[in-house]
Structure formats: structure tokens, C-alpha cells
Amino acid sequence: MLLSTCPTESELNRFNTDFDILFDSTIPFPPYGCQNGTGPDGEVNPKLTLYQGLRVIHALHFNQPLPWTELSLYEWLKGAIHGIVITDAEFSHCCAAGKQIVLKGDLLYQPDYQIWVNPQSGGGLIGLIGLIVHEARHAEIGGHTCGLDDATLEELGAWGTQSYLFLYLAENTPLAFFNQEQRQMAIQHSDTALARICNP
Ligand SMILES: [Zn+2]
């Protein structure tokens, strides 16, 4: 529902106030545009993709606190990072100077990111939300503790946090938020992140 509408002026202002959103000016990103929740003429608009992700993060609420914060997901994100840089980095990562997460620009062109989750591919904006939360968690607690993975779930590292986020999307959101299939896909995403814990 939310994804078939465009961000309002005040939503865009809020996101730009709460985060330094920087699309690398050396990369020819198309200008922001939105028509019924997608880019003009049905094109995938990378700037819109990011704003839609932030809209979802802002709209989400859970029937119990997230394991890593007492705050709402949006308020937590706001406190964890100062900004989001979108560039041609080979991998999304954290952090650029001043607690800014770095997102790989190509990701924001994925057609699947225009919907919440594609049951065929499993991809969707749900993946971007997980990525943003993962990278933002690095800003709070540092890097991985078992190579590129995390040693334990209890340490609530970037992978553990990401896994819990998806689990909470599946199990702790109001019924109207997601259908059964979407909840099933969220569990799969949770398990994928859980597989990155060395000693779960
Ligand atoms: Zn990581």
C-alpha cells in the first residue's frame, strides 16, 4: 500500500533533516521523481528507492521492543547514524567519516526494490531495510567478530540484528502490515542472516 504511493513533501523533508543523504555527485544518478510509487515512466528511480525504504522504516512498529534497542526502528536509526552515502562502492559498508553508512548505488536500481518482496526471487525492499539496519548497527558496535560473520547471536552484531529484524517483521508486526507469504519470506531472510553467525 505504502509503496504504491509517493513520499509527501513533509516526509522527504523529514528524511533529509534526520539524515545527511548524499548521492555521489560524480555518478550520473537520475533526478528524483515519483509517480504512483515508482519512478516516472515506470523507470526504477534510485533516489525514490531509498526514500521508500526510509518510509517503511518510519512506518514500521512492533508489538514488543526490538532486541537491540528500546526505541522505534526509525528513532534508533536516527541515533545510530548521521547519514547515508550512495556511491559506486563495490560493497555497501560502514562507515564513512562521521557515522555515515555507504550503500552501493547499483542496488537501488533493482526492479524488485519497488515492491516489498518478490515471492519468486525473495528480493525486494525488505532486503534494503535489512541492509540499512545491518550497516547502521556497525556504526554502533563495530565490525564482524568471526571473519565476515558474527561469532554469536547474543552479541547482537550486524548479522544478529539483521536476523532479528526479519524475524520481528514476520512475527511481531500488526496483522494488517504483511500477508502470510510476506511473513514467510521474512523468516527466510532471517534464516539467511542467521547463517552468518558462527556459533548461533
Ligand atoms: Zn557487515
In this entry the ligands are: zinc ion
Could you say how many structural domains there are in total? 1
How is the main sheet built? 4 strands, mixed
Mean pLDDT: 96
Q: Can I get a quick summary?
A:
Helices cover 39% and strands 12% of the residues.
Structure characteristics:
single chain; 200 residues; alpha/beta; 4-stranded mixed sheet; two-stranded parallel ribbon; 6 helices; 39% helix; globular; binds zinc ion
What's the arrangement of secondary structure elements?
Layout: H1 9-18, E1 20-23, H2 46-59, H3 73-80, E2 83-87, E3 93-96, E4 100-104, H4 125-141, E5 150-152, H5 158-171, H6 180-194, E6 197-199
Parallel strand pairs: 1-2, 2-4, 5-6
Antiparallel strand pairs: 3-4
Folded structure, characterized:
The structure is a single chain. This protein is α/β, with parallel strands linked by helices and 200 residues long. The protein has one domain. Helix content is 39%, strand content 12%. It has 6 helices and 6 strands, in the order αβααβββαβααβ. The chain has helices at 9-18, 46-59, 73-80, 125-141, 158-171, 180-194, and strands spanning 20-23, 83-87, 93-96, 100-104, 150-152, 197-199. The strands form 2 sheets. Strands 1-2-4-3 form a 4-stranded mixed sheet, with helices on one face. α4 crosses α5 (158-171). The chain is globular, with a radius of gyration of 16 Å. The mean pLDDT is 96. Bound molecules: zinc ion. Zinc ion binds next to α4.
